[in-house]
Amino acid sequence: MRRLQQWGVAGGLALAAFGGVVACDPADGMTASAVSITTDQLGTRALKDRGFDVRWLSCSASVNSATTATRTASPRPSGATTKGIASVDCQGETADQQAITVTGRITEQLDGRCVRGRLTAQVGKRTVFDVGGLGDCTAPSGPATGRTSKTS
What we know:
Strand content: 35-45%
Number of helices: 2
Shape: globular
Distance between the termini: 55 Å
Number of strands: 6
């Protein structure tokens, strides 16, 4: 029973910390956490679609000087489109230990399904993509789909 209480306390503290990070994001605009998570997921998918075996990729984003790492919160509720300006910086590695970077500026994040702006990815010293967006910004509202990344 004591172990169960310890887990309850630990879970409560984790939830409080999570709430504190989410509370820092603006309620009426693009959030750093949504941008970092969406870019992480879509960037990984785009690299895999181009034949790279991504071992890991971790993104951080900043909006109005507030920085949030990738796994701090989930994207906005279904159907949400947020606009603004966010800088995103992703670092990672392929299975054969090549460095991955994805950097750029995001002007719109749609429901965890797409990001628009300018993103550049490099694997090793090779530029893999330089695009105006990742994901499917034309898909109907709802959770992120398993569709392959669409670049514009």
